[in-house]
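Work Package 3 (structural annotation) set out to generate three-dimensional models for the target panel prioritized at the project kickoff. During this period the team completed the workflow that converts sequence records into discrete structure tokens, so that structures can be stored uniformly alongside our sequence database. As a representative example, we reproduce one entry of 274 residues exactly as it appears in the project archive.
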Amino acid sequence: MDKKEKLLTICQFAAMHGINKKTLMWYDEIGLFRPATVNPENGYRYYSYHQSPILETILLLREQDVSINEIQDFMKDRSADRLKCLLEEKLADLDRQITHLQAVRTTLCTHHQNMSTLLTMDLSEIRIVEKEAHCLVTVDVDPDTTFEQEVELITAQTEKYQLGRLHKASYGSMISVASLLDGHFDDYSKLFIEIPFLPYQPGLHIAPSGRYLRAFHKGEWDGIPKRYQEIFGYAKEHGLTLHGYSYEMGINENVIDRIEDHIVQIEILVSGGA
């Protein structure tokens, strides 16, 4: 007799599929998956090797949180078309989960990088870093925009892009290089939200790829003009031209209680130099 024609005990069949025999007993009781035969004398269940693909399909669907009722409906009328539709739905769900997990990982990496920076940074250092182009969601503000209005604007955008939780993105403010060079250090024109894996679409702000001058400021806002003067001095000394906007983002807000300990990361696109 072909080995594949031999019957397997419930324990053997369960072990072959990495499940508990009680699962098979339950599937039998609810009529979802029955054994090939049952010994009429002792009630022992036996399974055929050829039942394996069917059980694996059930287990695959259960692993993707397909309900028992849905699987029972499918089992009553199995077809390639119905299985294809079920799998397409679950593939779409899985893609959404993967995108979510990638976004969470990116957020965790950002926080991890910020903490690593905090532990090793020299606050007086100004240096050049390479950055790839990335999309930012922005809202327009001006010096007369109140804090309450800023919160409303940011909340509207988080809802629009279905962020759900604030920690799923990074936030900051933008001030034009032109305003800074004119000495208008409070002339912020935009707030930005950096959402992981955000594809380009009309209306988004593109932070260009290239070299960025990066510096840090610790303390209250009234000390930041002095830091920008130091940045201008560094740029002049190294033959750098500043472009576009300065992107300011707090990097330690989740580990401090006092505004005096607040650290802002400043990044500005530059050209020229060595």
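The chain has eight helices and eleven strands.
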